[in-house]
Structure formats: structure tokens, C-alpha cells
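Re-running MFS transporter to confirm reproducibility after the cluster update. Everything else is unchanged from the original entry.
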Amino acid sequence: MGQVLLRSNRDFRLLFSAASVSNLGDGIAMVALPWLATLLTHDPLLIAAVATAQRLPWLLFALPVGVLTDRADRRLLMVRADLARVVLMVCILGMVLGGAGAVGPVILSLIVVSFLFGTAEVIRDNAAQTILPAIVASQDLEQANGQMWSAEKVTGHFIGPPLAGLLIGAGVALPFGVDASLYALSACLVWLIALPPRRLLTGAPFWAALREGLGWMRAHPAILRLAVMLAVINAVFVGGMTILVLYAQEVLHLSAAGYGLLLTAGAFGGVLGGLASPRIAARLGMRQSLLLALGCFVLVHVLLALFASTPLAAAALFLEAASGMLWNVVTVSYRQRLIPDALLGRVNSVYRFFGWGAMPFGALGAGALVAWAEPALGRAAALHAPYYLGAAACLGLLGYAALRLRFE
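Result of re-run:
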């Protein structure tokens, strides 16, 4: 079915290709940016500050971007966001080629660029998620989302991270030059998409338009509960990923290439999860599928908390990606089907304000937890601490979902 969709739908094929290329760039950046930070400092708070800066725009700008998405041409928003990321990658390239300099100013520059990069990501991702229902039929949304998420995992987690390790080995600047080229190609592919005409949100004052989106979400408690649960999931996920670069270096003793290969293990899970999720959701139903994903999240964090083993860490990332794919395919398809197109940008932005706005707190909190725990527990034990906290948080979510999660 997914292959038929790719063959028969030109615009979906272009969107699919743009997402693949863009996420290959994201996969390279996923390794290259934190690795660049660790070349400057091993202070967990400073490394967390870089990750926090990239996620903070979800908290600051998700709501206004939602109104913008309903008021503007969503395709052009994606193109402009990709071009902005081209410029930012060129800036990092210039920083690296210009020499290290003093650590403080270079880290500060990296934090600023990461913040701007995250701002462009907020605009692009919100527009990209609202554009899909205009390209594929409602009954094809699970298949289309599964195909999109699988492609993003292949390029962003399977190909991108190990490629980044190889590029870093050839030269620290090289990944950022490659990323600039990839984001430029993505912008070109999105530019070629032909969307059907849609009525833009015009005339309504900003706050009135935003209140309309907030009011719709309040009237649909299942969506609101999913948003709050996603906030906790993303906070513990980003916290774990923020510390993972130090965990890989100091607990697992991996090189840049080894770290990239570790992240690739997650890609296998993501690809299989993306392909299998529509069938799992059809067999188990939405509620049981989400409970299964939450149970797996608990196990993932237990493995990372209790053990210091590269194979077990790889297994944990595999399971986390597969479970995250199941959660995303089910919940994103549900939202795309339920939310009216005229409100899709605003309601998605409110959803992501909760669900993604928590990520900077997770990143900064994980760095602060390691810094706080290190004097008492030692460096190695402190690097395990965020995963203990993540296991407890996901276990609490599983209990909450079993009691309260119901769908219309």
C-alpha cells in the first residue's frame, strides 16, 4: 500500500523525499553538534545548555507559529525554514574553520546558533505535519505517516549518525558543510510540491485566533491528555539523549564513529516500528498500542540505568525508537484525522507547546542532575542517574494511561 502511494502520488513522493533528505541532515547534526560541544568542554551543564537552546523555541514559539501556519502558505514556510538552516550550518562551518578561540565565546556562539536552528525546526515541523492531510486521503494517513517516519528513521538515525562519525574523522567542519547542502536540496524538493488551494486564516486578531485553537483542545480531553503525556515522554527522552554523548564516551568508551553506530541501533527499531505500527494499531487498537509503547519506554530506561553495556544500550535505543514510532504513528494520525484543517496549525501548535515545550527542561534538568549527583556518587553513577529518573517517570505515565486514557 505504501509503495503504491509513493508511485501514484507525486506530491507525497516529493514530501517523502524532502523529509528523507532533511532528516539525513538532522541525523548528521545529532552527532556533530554535541560532539563539537564535547571538544570544547566536558561540563554537563554547558553541554546541556547547547541541547536546551535547540529545544527552547518549542516552548517559546510553538503557539505563535501555529497561528502563522494557518495564516500562511505552509509550503513556503517549509522552504524558508530549510533555507534558514542552510545559513546556520554555514555559520557553524565558519566557526569551526575560523579556529577554536576561547571556550566561553565559542560555546556561547554554539548556543545561539542552536537556538536559531531550533526556531527554524519549529516552523518547518509544524508546517510539515499540517501539510500531509492535504496531500493524501484520510484513509491513507497511517500508511503515509508510517512511510514518512520510517524514511526519517532510516536517514536520520540509520545513515546520518554513522556518516557523521566518518565525516568528523575526516574533519570536524565537514558534517556542517554536508548539512548545508542537504537542507538546500530539501528546500528545492518542497518548492516543487503543488498543494490544492486552501482558505487561509485572515482578519482574526492573533489572540482570538489562538484562543480558538486552545478552545478546541479543551473540548477534546483525549488530545489534551496525550499532549501532557507527550511532555513527560519528550522531557525524559531529551534528557537521556543530552547525557548520552557523555555516557557513550565515559561509560561505554566509544569513539565518534562508535557513538554514531550506537545511534544507528535506534534506526533499526525506528524503521521496523514505522513499517509495523499501522498493523499493530489495527490489531490492538489505539489505547492498547499506546500502553504497549509506554511499557517499552519503562524497560528502555531500566536497561540504561542498571547496566553499562554497549550491546544492551544498543538494544535499549532499538526498543525506544520502535516504541516511539508506534506512539507517533498512532497519535499523529489520530490528530490529523480529528482536527479540522482550518484549525490544524493552531491545535498542533498547542499540542506541541505542551509535548515539545517540555524538552528544554528535560535537557537542562538532566545536565543539572548529573552535575548535582557527581560529587556524591562519582562520575559514572551520576551519568546513569537521568535514566533512573526516566524509568520512574515512564512507569508513572503507564499507570496514568491505564486509568485515564480513553478515546472518542
